[in-house]
Amino acid sequence: MPIPERPLDVLHVSQPTEAGVARIVADLAAGQVRRGWRVGVACPSAGPLARWVTTAGGTHLEWAATRAPGPRVVAEIRRLRRCVESFRPDVIHLHSAKAGLAGRLLLRGRKPCAFEPNSWSFEAVEGPVAAAARAWERRGGRWCDVVVCVSEAERRVGEDAGIDARYRLVPNGIDLGVVTPASADDRAAARSRLALPDEPTVVCVGRLSPQKGQDLLLDAWPRILRHVPDARLYLVGDGPSRASLEERRVERVTFAGHRTDVPDWLAAADVVTMPSRWEGCSLAMLEALGRGRSVVAFDVSGAAEAIDGDAGEVLRPGDLDGLARSLTERLADPTRADDEGRAGRRRIEERHDLRVTETAVAEIYAEVLAARGL
What we know:
The protein is an alpha/beta fold. It contains 15 helices and 13 strands. Helix 7 (about 185-195) crosses helix 10 (about 260-270).
C-alpha cells in the first residue's frame, strides 16, 4: 500500500509522557510533521512529551489521564472525546494500555484507528485481573482497524491470548544519525565526561519499576562481584521502585537517576543489561545495540529478534544464575563484548532504522483509510 498522497491529520494518544513509549510517539509525530502532515498528540502535560511534540511542529492537546485503569476512565474518555472533536483527525493512533482502553471505548470502531500496545496490558498483572485484561483486549481488538505490534513475539502473545485483530508488524526504529556506534575511544571519553572510573562497567537504562526488573538485577549482582570484584553497576533512570531498590544497599551499585545524557551512559558501558519482566520491544535496548554495546536481556518480546544470538545473550526470564554468568563472561572478555556490540550495530542498521518505521506506519494509515473508502 503506497503512502497517502494527500497530507493527513493524525492524532496520537498516549498516557506515558516520558521514557520509551513517549519517545516512540514523539519520533513518529516529528517524522509525520516533516511529511507535511498536521499532527496532534493528546497526552498529560507532565513530562517531556508535550514539549517534544510542539518543538517538532506538532500540536499538544491536554489529556489528563492516569496510568492505572479504574473509575477515572469515564472522565478520561470524556476528555479524550473533546480532544478528538477539537482536532478532527483522519486517523487516530493509540499508544499503550491506557490510551488503548479509553480510545477504543470512545471510538468503538467509528473512526479510523490504529492501536499499538507496546506490551499487552495483561502482561503487567496476574490472576483475575490478568483474565479481565485479556477479556477486554479480545473485545477491544474488534474496535480498531489495526493492531500495530513492534515485535513478532508481541504479536504471538496477542494471538495466543485469543485477540482476533488485523495485526501489522512494525519494529521500533531509532535515528541512526543520532544513535551512532561508540568506539573504545568514545567509551573513554564518555567516562571522562561522566566522571566515571575506568573499571568493568555494566549499565542498565530504564524506568525504575517492577516491569524493568532492576530488583532481579540487584539479586544477581553479588554473584558477579564474586568473580569481578571491581565491577560497578549503574542504574540510569528514575521511577517508583527507586526507594526500595536503594534501601537494599547492594555494593558497587550507583543510582544515576533521570538523565538527559543516556547516549554517554551507553557509550561508557562494557555491557548493557535489560532484565525486564515484559516488553513490546525496548527502545533502550535498541539504542544500546545502536551504540555498539553487547546486550544481555531476558527473553521478553522483542529481545530475541533484536539480539538474535550474536549481539549479546537472551536468557530465560528470571534466570538469575544465567544473568550473573552472562554478565561475568562479558566483563572478563571485553573483546567478545565489543565484537557482539559491532554485530548489534549491524542488526540495528538492517532492521531498526527509524525512517523505515515511519514509512511503514504511513503505509498502515493508507491501508486503514483505503479499507474504509476514505
